[in-house]
Amino acid sequence: MTAAPPARRAEDGSPYPDRSRPDFERQVRRMFTHIAERYEWFDHVASLGNDYLWRPRALWDLDRFRAGRPVARALDLGCGTGELARLVTRRHAAARVVATDFTAAMVAHAARVLRPSGEGARLSFARANALRLPFADASFDLVTNAFVVRNLADLDVAFREMRRVLRPGGSLLILEITEPLSPRFGAVFHAYFDRVVPWLGAAVASEGPYRYLPESLQSLPPRAQLLAKLKSAGFSRAEARPQSRGIVTAFLAEAGAPATQSR
Length: 263
Ligand SMILES: C[S@@+](CC[C@H](N)C(=O)[O-])C[C@H]1O[C@@H](n2cnc3c(N)ncnc32)[C@H](O)[C@@H]1O
Prior knowledge:
Blueprint (H helix, E strand, L loop, with lengths): L23 H12 L3 H8 L4 H16 L6 E5 L5 H9 L4 E6 L2 H10 L9 E5 L12 E7 L8 H11 E12 L5 H21 L3 H12 L4 H10 L2 E9 L4 E8 L8
Helix pairs in contact: 7-8
């Protein structure tokens, strides 16, 4: 039996996930372990502060999409340091929110920065892989995730899992980096995203993660295809709401009736 070749690493030795390898998921987890402590502030710097606006704006879009139906149980996937999960908990004052991530260092960081009073009493953290969720069918009214789906090994499996844990009529919000709407602005965006961001990453000993970042965007299907995948996974209504000229998009979807089993 021949040993698998060693995982790809950048010149500074930092993890640099390679989607073509069978251990891609493990590499993604190693990468997020590597950047967990500096993830949040680096994100604010690299996005030039725009990420402060993107998550609240996506939740605002979600409110209009769901037309104010109550949320008793919500699930945030790939919660990272918990930024979106905290906003969801504040926004839905009666909801119990479970925030999950498959990187232990991220969950530990998120739990450490959470204040136990206020929304902290309604928000709990757990480790879970988005492709194999440890929750019963129809157990949530709302599923959210931000900047996660680019990193998933199998989008179709993940979307089916998101649909499975939602009750019929429940809502899904996916916020993700996407291709800008106009080619002219896209050229400016890619000069920054593909060259400056990896250079900034290298300055904090994380060249691999921030060279992987633009590669991960290339692996994401265009908006229309992603909406089609959501419909195939059992979402009855699915819409895309681009922000910042399309640099990010909030995908909103409503869980349809469960598929009837054919005998
Ligand atoms: C770019 S961070 C986003 C964190 C957070 N949602 C935010 O808004 O900043 C992506 C997160 O997704 C997690 N992740 C990636 N693949 C995952 C998977 N298959 N299952 C669960 N979490 C995953 C990573 O560990 C990481 O914390």
